[in-house]
């Protein structure tokens, strides 16, 4: 992780979040923690950083605010979530199965469900990197964790 090209803070708009289960809250907290610990994040043609990001849903679009570490707004990108809609729907189904399985299923059943969950997560990360290209430079691990947070914003719906 370079000294400049990384995130030092990630926040989610409270008004965009809905009620969530303890499992979902835990996943969100882990995603934020892991994202801050290790990420690659840069704005093309901008010699700044480190950065802070604030995610919100605004009129069914993702508002992706990028700020300097001291909180000054640098840029806001509004992204349509339509390309992620199918993945989010499938991910919801797999997550529901996973949360149910961790309470009653065998380790091999849990592992099989988790493999499907990771596959969808990877698919979403690739799409997110593509959708943010020319706006924000991120690696796949950063994109995976950002997808977890974008998914958290959909729990409200």
Q: Can you give me a brief rundown of this structure?
A:
With 157 residues, this protein is α+β, with helices and mostly antiparallel strands. It is built from 4 helices and 6 strands. Helices cover 48% and strands 22% of the residues.
Beta fraction of the residues?
15-25%
Order of the strands making up the biggest sheet: 1-3-4-5
Helix content: 40-55%
**Secondary structure: number of strands:** 6
Derived from helix and strand composition plus strand pairing, the structural class reads alpha+beta
Tally of helical runs: 4
Question: What is the H-and-E element order?
Answer: EHEEEEHHEH
What oligomeric state is this? single chain
Biggest sheet: strands, sense, closure? 4 strands, mixed
Uncertain spans, ≥5 residues at pLDDT below 50? none
Radius of gyration: 16 Å
């Amino acid at each position: 992780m370079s000294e400049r090209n990384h995130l030092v803070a990630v926040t989610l708009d409270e008004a965009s979040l809905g009620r969530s289960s303890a499992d979902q809250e835990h996943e969100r907290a882990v995603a934020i923690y892991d994202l801050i610990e290790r990420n690659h994040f840069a704005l093309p043609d901008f010699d700044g950083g480190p950065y802070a990001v604030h995610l919100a849903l605004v009129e069914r679009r993702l508002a992706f605010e990028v700020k300097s570490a001291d909180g000054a707004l640098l840029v806001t990108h509004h992204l349509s979530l339509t390309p992620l809609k199918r993945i989010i729907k499938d991910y919801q189904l797999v997550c529901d199965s996973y949360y149910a399985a961790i309470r009653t299923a065998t380790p091999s059943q849990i592992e099989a469900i988790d493999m499907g969950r990771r596959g969808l997560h990877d698919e979403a990360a690739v799409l997110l990197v593509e959708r943010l290209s020319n706006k924000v430079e991120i690696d796949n691990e950063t994109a995976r964790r950002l997808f977890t947070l974008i998914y958290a914003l959909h729990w409200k719906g």
